[in-house]
Structures are given as C-alpha cells and as structure tokens.
C-alpha cells in the first residue's frame, strides 16, 4: 500500500514541480549546491530516496488540503454572503459532517504515520548481517577526523581548503572543499558511527539523507550504501552551531568503485601511517585506564 502511495505521490509531485518551475531534473548529477536551487539534491542512497518519496507523499497531501480549504472558503464567501443569502440558516448541528471532519483527519494522519514510522526504522541502523564496513567520524573545533577500524585503524584529519588555494579546474568549490576527502566504496553497506571531541557538531550529507549530531562522550549511528551508478563526489557541512568557525567545516566524500577504493586504501595507509599509530596508542591508553578503574 505504501509503495502504491509512493508511486502516485512521486508522479504527482514531479508534475507539480514542473508546474512550479523547479523540477529536480535541473540538478541531476549535481552533488553540490546550485544557483537558485529549490529542491532536494539528487538522492544517492536508499535512505535519501525514501526520504524524497515520503516528502512527495506529504507534498501531495498538503496541496490537496490547501486546495480543499481554499475551495471551501471561496464557496462559503460566494454562497453565504449577506447579499446572496439575506436570511441566514439556524442550523447548529450536522451529525454526518461532524463525523466526517473527525474521521477524515484521523485517516490522513494514519496514512502519514505508517510510512513515517517505516522510514524512521529503515534509516536508523543497517542490519548487522549486512554491514560490510565501518567509518568513524569525530567532530572537532573546527575540522573532522575519520577512522577506518576495518583497515588497521587508518585515521586522518579533514580540514577546509582556504579560498586562495581553491582550484576551480579540479572541481573544487569555495567553502566546500577539504585537504583530505573521505573515500568509500560503492555497492557497500557502511556503518557510520559518530562522536565529538569537544562540543556538539552535526555531520550532514544531504544526498545521503544523513544529518546526525556528534555528541561528546556518546556514539550516534547511521548508514550509507551508494549504488555503483551513483559513484561520485558528495558534499555536506557541519549543521550544528559549534563556535566561531562553524561555517568552515565542510564534508567531502568520494564514492568510488571497489577496485579504486582498494588502491586508495593502500596509498592512504602509507600516507597516514603515523596517524594510525596514534589511534592505536590512544586505544591502548583507554584500555589501560579502564582496567585501572
């Protein structure tokens, strides 16, 4: 039933978007922000695809409600104004209408609630038996750190590239480019665990449907799976006010074929070897402190 509503909602909302002049097709294959963009970025994960479908369903419901209420108000103004209806009716109750305006909103809420709960459950965590890789995200003031626990604790920091060093010919975007991009393989279910080293941050990638707080002393979790046909570069930013340089914490993810990811992994292990050793030492210290306590 949900799939039926989702299909209908997607079809109707697409027509509505064309009618309003901001169809999502205008940003196809564009993973960064676009001038005058008024719709979602193209979905790159199953989670974001379902979020867009749910949004389309809500959009149709909202438009129909608005049109119904508007039509009702216009009808009342024309039909029951003082000139057209000099003797007002003295009707005080109508059982049928009272039942309908109670039952119909309940039905609408149920139609919204069922796919909403289904989506919340779907986007919460990837099934354990399907997780193929883990990516750890750590927020700092004002940069991100990433760890690959499955790759010998590979770890590195990711900082904003200053304006004067931006190279537009390489596809770099001002305020949305970093010195070390995150690499992930396509067609791989990735568990993303997030925390913070200092204050609240928020790891947000619009095309992935992820917007999750990183909280000091706590682990939050999300998941990613990018299909092979949607390999490419995806961008996001910190979306939680975290201090004076909050607006300078971009996120750049390069989703690449598995063969390319394997080559990148080998290069990264050599380039960031010292960082991996620091992670090992930090984890050893945590284990020793825990044993002492």
List the helices and strands and how they pair.
Elements: H1 2-20, H2 46-79, H3 95-124, E1 133-140, E2 143-148, E3 154-158, E4 182-185, E5 190-196, E6 201-205, E7 210-214, E8 220-224, E9 232-238, E10 250-256, H4 258-271, H5 273-292
Parallel strand pairs: 1-5, 4-10
Antiparallel strand pairs: 1-2, 2-3, 5-8, 6-7, 6-9, 9-10
Helix pairs in contact: 1-2, 2-3
Q: Would you write up a description of this structure?
A:
40% of the residues lie in helices and 20% in strands. The protein is of the alpha+beta class. The chain has a five-stranded mixed sheet with strand order 3-2-1-5-8. Strands 4-10-9-6-7 form a five-stranded mixed sheet, covered by helices on one side. The radius of gyration is 25 Å and the shape is elongated. The model is unreliable at 4-29 and 281-292 (pLDDT under 50).
């Amino acid at each position: 039933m949900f799939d039926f509503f989702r299909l209908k909602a997607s079809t109707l909302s697409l027509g509505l978007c064309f009618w309003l002049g901001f169809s999502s097709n205008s940003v196809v294959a564009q993973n960064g922000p676009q001038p005058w963009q008024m719709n979602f970025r193209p979905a790159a994960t199953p989670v974001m695809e379902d979020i867009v479908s749910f949004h389309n369903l809500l959009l149709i419901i909202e438009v129909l409600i608005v049109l119904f209420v508007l039509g009702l108000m216009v009808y009342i103004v024309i039909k029951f104004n003082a000139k057209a209806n000099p003797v007002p009716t003295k009707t005080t109750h109508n059982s049928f209408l009272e039942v309908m305006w109670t039952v119909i909103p309940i039905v609408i809420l149920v139609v919204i609630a069922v796919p909403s709960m289904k989506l919340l459950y779907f986007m919460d965590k990837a099934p354990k038996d399907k997780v193929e890789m883990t990516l750890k995200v750590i927020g700092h003031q004002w940069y991100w750190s990433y760890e690959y626990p499955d790759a010998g604790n590979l770890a590195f920091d990711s900082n904003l590239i200053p304006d004067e060093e931006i190279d537009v010919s390489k596809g770099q975007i001002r305020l949305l480019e970093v010195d070390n991009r995150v690499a992930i393989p396509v067609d791989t279910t990735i568990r993303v665990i997030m925390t913070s080293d200092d204050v609240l941050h928020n790891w947000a990638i619009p095309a992935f449907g992820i917007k999750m707080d990183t909280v000091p002393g706590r682990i939050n979790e999300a998941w990613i799976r990018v299909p092979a046909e949607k390999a490419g570069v995806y961008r996001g930013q910190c979306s939680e006010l975290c201090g004076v340089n909050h607006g300078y914490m971009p996120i750049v993810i390069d989703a690449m074929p598995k063969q390319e990811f394997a080559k990148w992994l080998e290069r990264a292990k050599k380039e960031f070897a010292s960082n991996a050793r620091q992670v090992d030492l930090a984890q050893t210290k945590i284990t020793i402190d825990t044993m002492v306590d």
